[in-house]
Write a structure and sequence with these properties.
There is one protein chain. The protein is built from 1 helix and 10 strands. By secondary structure, it is mostly beta strands. It has a single domain, classed as Beta Barrel (Lipocalin). The protein is globular.
Length: about 190
C-alpha cells in the first residue's frame, strides 16, 4: 500500500512539473513562452529580462522633472501564456502590469497597478503591435475636458533594450502631449 501511494504521489509530482514547464523558476528566472500561447505573446519576447532604465515625468508646472533610475523586469507568467512586469524606482514608487493577449479580439489587455495609487479595480490599456512598436490606449479626457486617450508606446525594441513613452493624444491622434518617458538598457535576459 505504501509503495502504491509513493508511486501515485511521485507520478502526480512529475505530471505537475511537466504541465508547468514554462513557469519562472531557478533554472529559468523569467519563464518561457508556451508554444501553445497565441503567437502574439512573443511581441514582448525582446523585453523579457531585466533592464536598467531612466524615467522622466512632468512636474506640476509641465516642465520635465529630474530623471530617476529604475529597474524594469519582464517575465512570462501563467505557464508562459502571459507577461508580467515590475518596476522598482529609486523614489520608492513601484508598479507593475499583467499583459495578456486575447485572440478573440486580437488585442493585448494590460492591467496596471502601483503602490502609490492602490485601487480596487485595476486600470486597463488595450492595443497591439504597430510596425516595430507596441502601442496601447486607455480612454482619458484632457484637463480641459477634451476627449482622448492616454497612449503608451514601446519603441526601439531590441535585445539591448527599448524606449517607452506615455502621452495624452486626442481622438484622431493629431495632437499629443508627452507626460512620461523611459529609456531602458537590458542588463539580464533569459
Amino acid at each position: 500500500m505504501k509503495l502504491l501511494l509513493a508511486c501515485l504521489l511521485c507520478s502526480s509530482f512529475l505530471c505537475a512539473q511537466s504541465t508547468m514547464k514554462y513557469t519562472a523558476n531557478a533554472a529559468q528566472p523569467f519563464g518561457k513562452i508556451n508554444p501553445t500561447a497565441p503567437p502574439e505573446t512573443a511581441d514582448y519576447a525582446p523585453l523579457i529580462g531585466t533592464c536598467d532604465c531612466t524615467s522622466t515625468t512632468r512636474k506640476a508646472d509641465q516642465s520635465w522633472a529630474e530623471p530617476q533610475d529604475m529597474t524594469w523586469t519582464f517575465k512570462y507568467i501563467m505557464n508562459g501564456n502571459a507577461v508580467q512586469d515590475e518596476t522598482l524606482k529609486e523614489d520608492g514608487s513601484h508598479s507593475g502590469s499583467i499583459r495578456q493577449f486575447v485572440a478573440d479580439s486580437s488585442r493585448w489587455y494590460v492591467h496596471y497597478y502601483s503602490n502609490t495609487a492602490p485601487t480596487p479595480i485595476l486600470s486597463a490599456w488595450e492595443g497591439g503591435k504597430r510596425g516595430d512598436s507596441i502601442v496601447l490606449y486607455r480612454a482619458q479626457k484632457a484637463p480641459n475636458g477634451t476627449e482622448g486617450f492616454f497612449r503608451i508606446t514601446f519603441s526601439n525594441i531590441s535585445d539591448e533594450g527599448f524606449n517607452w513613452l506615455g502621452e495624452w493624444v486626442n481622438t484622431n491622434e493629431t495632437f499629443r502631449f508627452p507626460t512620461w518617458k523611459i529609456v531602458c538598457t537590458k542588463t539580464e535576459d533569459d
